[in-house]
């Protein structure tokens, strides 16, 4: 461990800080460092493969003798399985294997739960055979409405022990055991200071109840995988956010060593938090393949995807907030009842705890269980819903003390980065004259501008590994077992390696998406880049050091005398003798015939650096038709910090994506369950409405480079923070436009009309 | 989708004969039928494909217009004559579905498509439209359902945008039957759920829509189509309004007012027509017409907002038509 | 829902038959003339013209085009997302016009020119719009990209330089969950700009919409002619 001075900060303001550097790890880049590649706009390396249709996703895998797997699902929201009869299905043409997933006596807790599976030699035969499975159910009482589930005497989702599922995408601390009464579990409680005292000190207090809906991930590639056995070795092609998690789940479930399972994922069609682990369908595919002695492809269809693969839980948030008349928050109190169907972990308190400074904070989070498809981690779990309630409250409180909402936030935001983002965003959106833009030429149209703040976390995981091989021709190969969800992580790996090695991008080859490679991170929590980039840099740093070592031997100078060429080229020079120069290519020719391979392990985070929350701010401008209640988002300005950007182009893409998912969540998306039957009525992408091209506003993205020194590349993920404040900003913009508070999502025409009427004084 | 035999036919006569056999479905563009078959709502043993029949995809804007049942929505929307003479039909076709679907979907298919009620569209619900005993929407999730005739045995809404436009224009359907052919005024084509909720039109057994004729507009004719949707990209209307009328000496003559997505059929409003007839176009007149059109609405628990939206869409259509 | 199709004709069968018309008379016509040849329900030979090449495969009539492409021929560039015509992931060109291959029966694609994403690049060189997608990062996970590109390709086959609103409309049937739309708009503008810069002045291109041989005749005559072939007429048309 060595101690080094590093300069940390942003926007030209840097201060020196002494931090401990792990052996063999490079120190975080200095702000004066000029990059050749890092932070520029680089088209993704696999763009060609994707644009040509050549990219082979896991769902595209074809193997000789491939069988097609299908799953039979329980049609009832709650039922006991009395009998599963597979005999007729087994006799259907082409059927090679069958499997019971929920045996006699087993309880199905939502409509869509897996009951049986089979594999057949064609998709058509599999479909026909599925219809021949006979299951006898005994229906049980059920409840799908969150409010009804909270009432005494409501049918119990779990009669005995609560059975929920955790995921690698969950927020930390979510797995703590909690008490349960009826269908309500919790609270997960947090308290700081004394809220009662805080409210006493307040000059103004507001309170409100905010309701959010269930949003489904709707990744375009459905869940599933292809499983192939060769002897006792299992090969998997999965659509997953974590190849290593799939491997570990399968090894555990099948009782085989993890070393016998190899998982591939070269391309995958989106995850957004729902694709961790082998899951029921993955384990079923592996078992069916074993029984049939043939490879099995088991991918869900869209309806199954909507019913059973996870969602962002609904919430009902009661929030009370107080401030002094000069605009200082004195107390924040949140009570949330989240509803994640048969899953818990539905809290929304993080934005409230982590964005604005307040001495007195109390949060109480309850999970309400219902007989509905289980929630799972979804892009910034808990945050968009929490930000929606918090930011509405901030606007309400600002109004009550007669202060501009931007100024009110500025006064309470402890993050210098975010205050700068607020300033930039406010200027870009034209915050100052937002009131004068409300009325336009068309009297039925009102315009509004709203804002919201984002918070996220800047710590990648440690212990991941990567190798960088250097060949004698000077080219490099990077091996790193992570997966690219579409975020551009493959390209990120290449950029970091090429930057550190001093090579052009086309001299670096990257291998990812295979558990046979040195283990990389699972992709959740926006931790991929901050986990991988420092690992890659460290491996490249070591590889380059090995090349420098070869040069030092050739020059017969001590290794520390060899330095990067002063002319900015890719080669080396001797510090003691400036006439000694060698190009990278010539230096690599000095390597032994087999070249060199350097391994690195991700060093621990520098806890002694500028550890902080990641900050973002978004502003939305909307048009509201006050006659029809239609909302059209015109423009969004998204200002974010993601540490030091690796690839400005793909970062921009990801921010745009976060914004668009946020608008879609704010205005359209809603899983609708029929209360009488407990079934989802819109398990599709037609009536489950998702934003499209004509609903896409102009989006301006601005990224603020921040040198926080937590890892050697200052990397921070952007996937999640980019969607945290969007719905909040849109809802605040609509409220600004019509002069009445929007307190539930999605913001439907009828909700807007109701608010318009409220603003006009209660006309029916 | 269950297995079936595909029977491609070359003439409508063949089609009518073939379709007169049991467990047979007729397929043109197939966008609705294949969707229903994939969901398991329909499982015919035989599918008679009329997609390859020559001579029924023509578009002649006339006037009077003559449009083959196999003309696609994309071609109707793009036809210069239709756009000029029957702008509401062009707009209805242009704003339907997605570019891909408009290239596939035919006029005949659009008129005969089944409703989008989510209970009907899912195999999980054995609703009255499928021959079951319940209308789940009555007391269930009915944001998008009917606001007229809601005491009926089924409260879905008719999905056809071109149907609303053609009703406003007073079109006539030319059909073939296993034994001949007939002209069917569009006023007599659509039917409500009573007594038979499993159908939305009065085509006889084996009867196939071959073409549509639209009368020549009279002097001073104007028309407009307005729909309101939640999102702009591929969404079904919440409500739509279509009006056709003549302006003569500053007064409205022969108004025909149709609201879509408000009832089990494209909803012609005699009440609104009565208010409009002879009146001079004005905001006050439009508002009175809208009030009259929706006076009889009886919304369900979740869709009172549609009453308001229907009024707005009608006023806006009138405004555009008379501008 | 238990409904045995062999149990005889019911009113529900009648409804199921309706697309371009309600169908299925309870009484089967007596002394029926020999009907047209039926395909299936088992596998039937099918030749398809895909990307200028003839492919042969054996599929049941119920197999839709996208499944024939992907599972039958290994042309996996075309994706399935909703399978119901609501997302555009399966978009291909059928005789030059974009269509959902998930709702088109494979056997009904016989005799038509099918172009898939694999057919856009020529001799391993990406087309200008494909290049523009890569350059503008108009793809993230890439699962909507094939369909999105087919729609953009069709748009750019039309004469003139599309406006941003026209681009929005052209891809309104292509659902993207990652949110690539802004970069898609940029890419198409870029591709159109490249084309405009390199193109000779306005040479008229094929319009998007198809015409059929019937259009060459006076339409009304054509219909009357077709209807005249039918037995038992009652009254004229029109």
Keywords summarizing the entry:
heterotrimer, B: 323 residues, five-stranded antiparallel sheet, 13 helices, 12 strands, 32% helix, globular, C: 238 residues, alpha+beta, Ubiquitin-like (UB roll), DNA polymerase, domain 1, 2 domains, 7 helices, elongated, disordered N terminus
The order of strands across the largest sheet of chain B is: 4-5-8-6-7
- The top-level CATH class of the domain at 415-458 and 610-759 in chain A is Alpha Beta
Helix content of chain B: 25-40%
SS summary, helix count of chain A: 18
Strand count of chain B:
12
The beta-strand count of chain A equals 32
Low-confidence stretches of chain A: none
* Oligomeric state as shown: heterotrimer
Helix content of chain A: 25-40%
CATH topology term of the domain at 415-458 and 610-759 in chain A = Aldehyde Oxidoreductase, domain 4
Report strand % of chain A. Answer: 25-35%
Q: Kindly name the structural category of chain B.
A: alpha+beta
Query: What is the C-alpha radius of gyration of chain A, as a whole number of Å?
Result: 28 Å
Description:
The complex is a heterotrimer of chains A (764), B (323) and C (238). Among the domains of chain A are: 56-61 and 218-309, Aldehyde Oxidoreductase, domain 4 (2-Layer Sandwich), CATH 3.30.365.10; 65-140, Aldehyde oxidase/xanthine dehydrogenase, a/b hammerhead (Aldehyde Oxidoreductase, domain 3, Alpha-Beta Complex); 415-458 and 610-759, Aldehyde oxidase/xanthine dehydrogenase, molybdopterin binding domain (Aldehyde Oxidoreductase, domain 4); 461-601, Aldehyde Oxidoreductase, domain 4. Helices cover 26% and strands 26% of the residues of chain A. Chain A has 18 helices and 32 strands. In chain A, the strands form 8 sheets. A 7-stranded mixed β-sheet of chain A has the order 5-7-3-16-13-14-15. The longest helix of chain A has 28 residues, at 528-555. Chain A starts with a strand and ends in a 5-residue tail after the last helix. The mean pLDDT of chain A is 96. Chain B has 323 residues and is an alpha+beta fold. Chain B has helices at 12-19, 31-39, 73-78, 80-85, 87-94, 99-104, 107-112, 118-121, 136-139, 161-169, 270-276, 283-294, 305-322, and strands at residues 5-8, 24-27, 46-49, 59-60, 65-68, 172-177, 180-185, 208-214, 221-228, 239-248, 251-260, 267-268. In chain B, the strands form 3 sheets. In chain B, strands 4-5-8-6-7 form a 5-stranded antiparallel β-sheet. The model of chain C is unreliable at 1-33 and 200-238 (pLDDT under 50). Chain C has 7 helices and 5 strands. A 5-stranded mixed β-sheet of chain C has the order 2-1-5-3-4, with helices on both faces. Chain C is 30% helix and 11% strand. Chain C folds into 2 domains: 11-29 and 41-119, Roll (Ubiquitin-like (UB roll)), CATH 3.10.20; 128-199, [2Fe-2S]-binding domain (DNA polymerase, domain 1, Orthogonal Bundle), CATH 1.10.150.120. The longest helix of chain C is centred in the last third of the chain and has 18 residues, at 181-198. In chain C, helix 3 (128-136) packs across helix 6. Chain C is elongated, with a radius of gyration of 22 Å. In chain C, strand 1 and strand 2 form a beta hairpin. Chains B and C meet through strand 1, helix 1, strand 2, helix 2 and strand 3 of B and helix 1, strand 4, helix 5 and helix 7 of C.
């Amino acid at each position: 461990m060595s101690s080094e001075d590093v300069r940390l900060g942003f926007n030209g303001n840097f201060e020196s800080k002494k931090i401990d550097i792990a052996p063999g790890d490079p120190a975080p880049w200095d702000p004066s460092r000029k990059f050749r590649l890092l932070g520029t706009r680089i088209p993704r390396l696999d763009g060609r493969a994707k644009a040509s249709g050549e990219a082979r996703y896991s769902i595209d895998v074809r193997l000789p003798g491939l069988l097609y797997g299908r799953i039979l699902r329980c049609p009832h929201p709650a039922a006991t399985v009395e009998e599963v009869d597979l005999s007729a299905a087994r006799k259907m043409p082409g059927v090679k294997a069958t499997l019971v997933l929920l045996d006699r006596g087993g309880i199905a807790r939502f409509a869509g739960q897996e009951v049986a599976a089979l594999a057949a030699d064609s998709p058509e035969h599999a479909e026909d055979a599925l219809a021949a499975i006979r299951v006898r159910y005994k229906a049980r009482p059920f409840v799908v409405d969150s409010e009804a589930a909270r009432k005494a005497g409501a049918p119990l989702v779990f009669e005995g022990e609560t059975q929920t599922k955790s995921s690698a995408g969950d927020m930390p601390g979510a797995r703590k055991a909690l008490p349960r009464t009826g269908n309500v579990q919790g609270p997960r409680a947090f308290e700081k200071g004394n809220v009662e005292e805080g409210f006493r000190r307040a000059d103004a207090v507001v309170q409100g109840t905010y309701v959010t809906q269930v949003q489904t991930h709707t990744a375009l590639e459905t869940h599933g995988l292809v499983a192939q056995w060769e002897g006792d070795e299992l090969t998997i092609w999965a659509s997953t956010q974590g190849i290593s998690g799939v491997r570990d789940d399968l090894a555990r479930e099948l009782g085989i060593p993890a070393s016998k399972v190899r998982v591939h994922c070269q391309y995958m069609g989106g995850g957004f938090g729902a694709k961790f682990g082998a899951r029921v369908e993955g384990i079923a595919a592996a078992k069916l393949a074993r029984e049939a002695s043939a490879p099995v492809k088991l991918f869900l269809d869209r309806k199954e995807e909507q019913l059973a693969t996870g969602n962002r839980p609904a919430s009902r948030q009661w929030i009370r907030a107080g401030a002094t008349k000069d605009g200082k928050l004195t107390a924040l109190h949140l009570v949330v009842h989240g509803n994640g169907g048969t899953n818990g972990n539905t809290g929304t308190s993080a934005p409230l705890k982590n964005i604005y400074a307040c001495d007195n904070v109390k949060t109480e989070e309850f999970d309400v269980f219902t007989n509905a498809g289980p929630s799972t981690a979804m892009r910034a779990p808990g945050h968009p819903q929490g930000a929606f309630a918090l930011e509405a409250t901030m606007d309400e409180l600002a109004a009550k003390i007669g202060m501009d909402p931007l100024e009110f936030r500025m006064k309470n935001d402890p993050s210098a980065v975010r205050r700068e983002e607020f300033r930039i965003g406010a200027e870009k959106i034209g915050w100052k004259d937002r009131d004068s833009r409300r009325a336009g030429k068309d009297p039925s149209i009102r315009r509004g501008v709203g804002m919201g703040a984002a918070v996220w976390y800047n710590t990648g995981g440690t212990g991941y590994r990567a190798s960088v091989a250097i060949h004698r021709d000077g080219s490099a190969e990077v091996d790193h077992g992570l997966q690219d969800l579409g975020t551009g992580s493959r390209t990120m790996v290449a950029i970091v390696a090429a930057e550190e090695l001093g090579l052009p991008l086309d001299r670096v080859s990257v291998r990812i998406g295979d558990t046979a490679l040195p283990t990389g991170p699972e992709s959740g929590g926006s931790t991929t880049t901050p986990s991988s980039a420092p690992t890659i840099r460290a491996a490249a740093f070591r590889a380059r050091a090995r090349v420098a070592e070869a040069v030092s031997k050739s020059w017969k100078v001590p290794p520390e005398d060899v330095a990067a060429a002063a002319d900015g080229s890719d080669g080396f020079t001797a510090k003691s003798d400036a006439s000694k120069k060698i190009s990278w290519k010539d230096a690599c020719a000095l390597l032994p015939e087999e070249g060199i391979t350097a391994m690195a392990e991700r060093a621990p985070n520098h806890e002694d650096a500028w550890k902080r929350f990641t900050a973002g701010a978004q502003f939305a401008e909307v048009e509201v038709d006050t006659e029809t209640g239609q909302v059209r988002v015109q423009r969004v300005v998204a200002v974010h910090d993601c540490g030091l950007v690796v690839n400005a182009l793909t970062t921009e893409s990801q921010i745009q994506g976060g914004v668009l998912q946020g608008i879609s969540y704010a205005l359209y998306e809603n899983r609708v369950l029929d209360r009488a039957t407990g079934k989802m009525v819109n398990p599709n992408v037609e009536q489950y409405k998702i934003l499209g091209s004509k609903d896409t506003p102009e989006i301006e993205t601005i990224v603020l480079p921040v040198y926080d020194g937590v890892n050697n590349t200052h990397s921070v993920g952007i996937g999640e923070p980019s969607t945290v404040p969007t719905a909040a900003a849109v809802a605040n913009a609509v409220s600004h436009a019509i002069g009445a508070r929007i307190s539930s999502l999605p913001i439907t025409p009828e909700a807007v009309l109701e608010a318009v009427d409220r603003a006009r004084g209660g006309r029916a | 989708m269950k297995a079936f035999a595909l029977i491609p036919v070359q003439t409508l006569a063949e089609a009518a004969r073939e379709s007169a056999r049991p467990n047979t479905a007729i397929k043109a563009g197939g966008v609705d039928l294949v969707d229903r078959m994939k969901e398991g709502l329909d499982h015919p043993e035989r599918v008679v494909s009329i997609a390859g029949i020559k001579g029924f995809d023509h578009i002649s804007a006339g006037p009077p217009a003559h449009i083959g049942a196999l003309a696609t929505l994309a071609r109707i929307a793009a036809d210069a004559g239709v756009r000029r003479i029957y702008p509401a039909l062009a707009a209805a076709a242009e704003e339907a579905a997605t570019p891909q679907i408009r290239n596939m979907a035919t006029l005949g298919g659009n008129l005969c498509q089944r409703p989008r009620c989510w209970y009907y569209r899912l195999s999980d619900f054995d609703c009255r439209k499928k021959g079951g005993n319940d209308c789940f929407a009555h007391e269930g999730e009915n944001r998008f359902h009917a606001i007229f005739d809601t005491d009926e045995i089924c409260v879905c809404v008719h999905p056809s945008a071109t149907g609303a436009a053609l009703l406003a224009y007073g079109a006539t359907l030319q059909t073939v039957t296993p034994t001949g052919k007939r002209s069917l005024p569009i006023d007599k084509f659509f039917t409500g759920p009573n007594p038979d909720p499993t159908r939305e039109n009065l085509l006889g057994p084996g009867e196939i829509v071959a073409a549509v004729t639209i009368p020549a507009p009279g002097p001073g004719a104007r028309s407009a189509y307005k729909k309101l949707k939640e999102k702009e990209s591929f969404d079904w209307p919440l409500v739509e309004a279509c009006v056709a009328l003549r302006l003569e000496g500053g007064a409205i003559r022969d108004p025909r007012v149709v609201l879509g997505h408000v009832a089990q059929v494209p909803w012609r409003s005699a009440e609104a027509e009565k208010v409009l007839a002879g009146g001079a176009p004005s905001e006050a007149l439009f508002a009175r017409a809208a009030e009259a059109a929706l006076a009889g609405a009886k919304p369900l628990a979740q869709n009172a907002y549609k009453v308001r939206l229907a009024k707005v869409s009608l006023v806006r259509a009138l405004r555009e038509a008379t501008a | 829902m238990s409904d045995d199709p062999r149990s005889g004709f019911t009113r529900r069968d009648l409804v199921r038959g309706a697309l371009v018309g309600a169908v299925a008379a309870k009484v089967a016509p007596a002394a029926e003339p020999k009907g047209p040849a039926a395909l299936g329900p088992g596998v039937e030979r099918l030749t398809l013209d895909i990307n200028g090449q003839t492919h042969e495969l054996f599929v049941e009539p119920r197999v839709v085009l996208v499944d024939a492409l992907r599972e039958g021929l290994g042309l996996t560039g075309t994706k399935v997302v909703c399978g119901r015509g609501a997302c555009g992931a399966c978009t291909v060109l059928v005789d030059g016009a974009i269509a959902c291959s998930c709702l088109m029966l494979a056997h009904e694609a016989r005799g038509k020119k099918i172009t898939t994403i694999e057919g856009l690049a020529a001799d391993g060189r990406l087309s200008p719009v494909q290049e523009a997608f890569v350059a503008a990062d108009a793809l993230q996970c890439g699962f909507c990209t094939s369909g999105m590109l087919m729609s953009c390709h069709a748009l750019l086959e039309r004469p003139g330089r599309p406006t941003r609103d026209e681009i929005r409309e052209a891809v309104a049937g292509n659902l993207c969950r990652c949110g690539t739309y802004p970069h898609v708009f940029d890419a198409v503008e870029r591709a159109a700009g490249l084309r405009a810069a390199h193109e000779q002045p306005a040479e008229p291109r094929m319009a998007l919409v198809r015409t059929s041989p019937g259009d060459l005749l006076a339409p009304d005559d054509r219909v009357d002619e077709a209807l005249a072939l039918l037995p038992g007429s009652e009254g004229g048309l029109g």
